[in-house]
Amino acid sequence: MIIDAHAHLSDTEYGNTEMYLKVIKEAGIDQGVAVPGAMLDVRKMTEYITGRAKPDNPVPDNEYVEKAIKANQNIQGFICINPHDKDVNKQLEKGRKQGFKGLKLSPLSHQFSFASKGITSLADLCGDYGFPVYSHVVYSPGASTAKFIQLAKQFPKTNFIIGHMGFGPADQEALEAAKNLSNFYLETSTGNFLHIQETVKKIGSSKVIFGSEYPLSHPGIELEKILKLQITDREREEILSQNIKHLLQMK
């Protein structure tokens, strides 16, 4: 089995559910884990990363992902919550009842610190629910790799997944955290081949999770990087399905 552990779904011409299902079927991927997309126009991502453009009312469309997971047995969902909202715990509780299996954070869209009250409250509650916390990191003191690692240390009962193998092309800080913390995982989407290969060589495969970052990247292209790794079949199976199945308590 192959599971894409990180895809963005949105009611857009370039990132909708129907297109995603078609793409993963063609790529030989069996299941996907979806989060809300289109808070940022990924076709203009460089402008957002450099600060030349700001998100325009970045409200996550959790309803669209909820519809996708209820209509398709091969899609799981992570709810995205703006930690600046006053009712974050109620939103997470509602998401759990709606069938979501984890929490997605977006520091690029919502511009927060991992040390903020909203984040720590959500991280604590995720431990009670058995929800993994997924986030990318940015070049910012409050939302850096170091701050995300601190959050993981603060809440050892909660599992944390850092997107894209961390920050930049070879985030050694994230790699060391995955090696030393039992609740810290690395997700591979848009990560470079050499760093993924070296990570598995150094710390093994049990902390590495395959994801695609659809629609910014093609699931088949991201999968090809994992298929070409010089690793054992068992290690590949862990990366492609077993690790995310464990975190989401999938049968």
3D architecture notes:
The protein is α/β, with parallel strands linked by helices and 251 residues long. It has a single domain (3-247), classed as Metal-dependent hydrolases (TIM Barrel). The chain is built from eleven helices and eight strands. The protein has helices at residues 17-27, 45-49, 62-71, 88-98, 107-110, 117-129, 145-154, 172-180, 193-203, 219-227, 233-247; strands at residues 3-9, 31-36, 75-80, 102-105, 133-135, 160-162, 184-187, 208-209. The protein has an eight-stranded parallel beta sheet. Strand 1, helix 1 (17-27) and strand 2 (31-36) form a beta-alpha-beta unit. Helix 4 packs parallel to helix 6 (117-129). It is globular.
Succession of helices and strands: EHEHHEHEHHEHEHEHEHH
Gross CATH architecture: Alpha-Beta Barrel
Quickly give the structural class: alpha/beta
CATH homologous superfamily classification: Metal-dependent hydrolases
- Give the biggest sheet: 8 strands, parallel
The residue ranges in which pLDDT falls below 50 over 5 or more consecutive positions are: none
Rg measurement, Å: 16 Å
Domain Amidohydrolase-related: 3-247
Keywords: Lyase
Organism: Metabacillus endolithicus
Pfam family, one: Amidohydro_2
